Amino acid sequence: MTLNEFYRRCCKELDFSGDGSFEALCLFEDLLNISKSDIVKNELTLTQEMKNTISKAVDERKNGRPLQYILGKWGFYDRTFFVGDGVLIPRPETETLVSCALDFLKSKKSPVVYDLCAGSGCIGITLAALRPDAEVYLFEKEEAAFYYLLKNIEYHRADNAHAVKCDISDFDASRLPEADIILSNPPYIPSGEICSLQKEVINEPHTALDGGVDGLDFYRIICEKWVSKIKNGGMLAFECGENQSESICDIFNGRISDKKIIYDFNNIDRTVLLRI
Ligand SMILES: C[S@@+](CC[C@H](N)C(=O)[O-])C[C@H]1O[C@@H](n2cnc3c(N)ncnc32)[C@H](O)[C@@H]1O
């Protein structure tokens, strides 16, 4: 079998994902360092070792392991983040939080940023990299996710990003400086809906998904424990699930001076901005 024939067979086997050619190409590029033009030219010899590596990855995919875990990394805001078991894969819709924060912080010198429920650190580390004058604190409870958070801070050489391993529901933040902005993409799936999620998503950690009965537990925790850590005129920026934005605004009622809801490319109310 030639390299090209093997590639086409993998595309077919991965078709269940909705884009078999894309997934097969990611595997060939990342696991074998073979480019699209190598495949088209078909001049390389397909070795048994190459076949074994890709076949193992294709089998893992068929068993529902996310492509990003197999590759071990994924892109977010033009940067690469290490991912694997126990950490949420960065999503493109979360990039909106970063854009909103950059916009809000434009006029502020040496701002303080908190990223609550940081996971891989994609939000906070991106901000730390793009705003080297900022001090960014990233809070994460789970051991497995914290491992990737530290690894990504190191990879991005983000000396101004500070990882804090804690439960945000009982952390004493009194010794930290007040924040200009608190960002969070917390777990927000209602507990009862988790089992009906796509196979790949269920393979991501439930601790990163489960937001309690109505999905809003973490917004309540943040309202109760963290709003007081925001400077006057500061901002809270959240990601949320479909139709949660109004309830989130209600939770913060009386503690905010303004609110804005941003819809994603599927017209879902995905980002909530609250002015303190
Ligand atoms: C939806 S994920 C978001 C990860 C990352 N911010 C992103 O956007 O890709 C939520 C994260 O919150 C963490 N988490 C869950 N409960 C927590 C708690 N009580 N305190 C701190 N982090 C928590 C989970 O481990 C997970 O990494």
Describe this structure in words.
By secondary structure, the protein is of the alpha/beta class. It folds into two domains: 61 residues; 205 residues, Rossmann fold (3-Layer(aba) Sandwich), CATH 3.40.50.150. The protein is 37% helix and 19% strand. It is built from eleven helices and nine strands. The strands form two sheets. A seven-stranded mixed β-sheet has the order 5-4-3-6-7-9-8, sandwiched between helices. A two-stranded antiparallel sheet has the order 1-2. β4, α8 and β5 form a beta-alpha-beta unit. α1 packs across α2, α2 packs across α4 and α6 runs parallel beside α7. The longest helix is centred in the N-terminal third of the chain and has 15 residues. It is elongated and about 65 Å long. Bound molecules: S-adenosylmethionine. S-adenosylmethionine binds next to α7 and β4.
